[in-house]
């Protein structure tokens, strides 16, 4: 019996409900009933992926030194994924994305090298993974144009980031900010990616990549894999100055974030100034004590302990003293990474060679993919 489009749509909630369900399910398909799943996987828009071999793509913007939130939210997970022999990983320094906001050329050049140094210091192995600079592989922009021609303005208007990043100033609402989700989709699909590590706020972007892959497959024949989310437990590190928001590289107050290159003295000072409350005990209560709870969550991530264990270990400790205990633990975690970053910074030629070799490897894959895209679209 053939499944109607209406039946399929009934099994796939839309909007916010769809995204909330994606947080609970490991893949888009897992939201479907058995009947719809068979019909969905049987269409030209979907190639069922061999789960034994995963091609994983992820990226980082070169807009300043990565911080503790970046480390526990992404970088640490990347290294763990790299250690699985069944994974083929591709990591990109997405400099094209970074210029959607103003960048000083000299600062951007240094930030690109710093990003590479951080990834290497955290454990990314350029022999086991492909590590490259996005702008060095021209097919990213070319595929973005093809996909952009299959994207509607209404769909891009659903993404709020372009307004938040421009501050609502019409003069700052550049086309790049509006269309960068399409470039993100191109980044993913160019490497026939099967899986993407995502945070909670990134699901809409992955959904766009999935939808554009289906649209292309329906129009030009089955070609792109439909990338699935790797939705593991992601540590959410909050700002030390405003624990209601995530720790961010773009936060104006540098005291709100622990950068991976911060000295022990800087780490101590930032934790001393961290927003807490007037209750002295160390407890985990995010609703009523967000500041202290953020510190406990950071401590648990650093020590790879449970929240309960951290609270028990620090029972009877005043908040002021606890901040110094936490600073020491964070410094112990970051010290070897920090030293490696500084060592790599002193050897820019080595970093440039890593990027050059990575671009060559990435270009081999990208050229093969986009050559086929050009044939299917009718360019050649």
From TrEMBL:
EC number per UniProt: 6.1.1.2
Function: Catalyzes the attachment of tryptophan to tRNA(Trp) in a two-step reaction: tryptophan is first activated by ATP to form Trp-AMP and then transferred to the acceptor end of tRNA(Trp).
Top-level taxonomy: Eukaryota, Metazoa, Echinodermata, Eleutherozoa, Asterozoa
Keyword ATP-binding applies: yes
GO biological process terms, semicolon-separated: mitochondrial tryptophanyl-tRNA aminoacylation
GO cellular component: a single term: mitochondrial matrix
Protein's cellular compartments: Mitochondrion matrix
Keyword annotations of the record: Aminoacyl-tRNA synthetase, ATP-binding, Ligase, Nucleotide-binding, Protein biosynthesis
Key word Oxidoreductase present: no
NCBIfam families: trpS
Family per record: Belongs to the class-I aminoacyl-tRNA synthetase family.
Reaction equations catalysed: tRNA(Trp) + L-tryptophan + ATP = L-tryptophyl-tRNA(Trp) + AMP + diphosphate + H(+)
Organism of derivation: Acanthaster planci
HAMAP family: Trp_tRNA_synth_B
Name of the protein this chain belongs to: Tryptophan--tRNA ligase, mitochondrial
Entry's Gene Ontology molecular function annotations: ATP binding; tryptophan-tRNA ligase activity
Gene symbol of the encoding locus: LOC110978863
Database matches in InterPro entries: aa-tRNA-synth_I_CS, aa-tRNA-synth_Ic, Rossmann-like_a/b/a_fold, Trp-tRNA-ligase, Trp-tRNA-ligase_bac-type, Trp-tRNA_synthetase
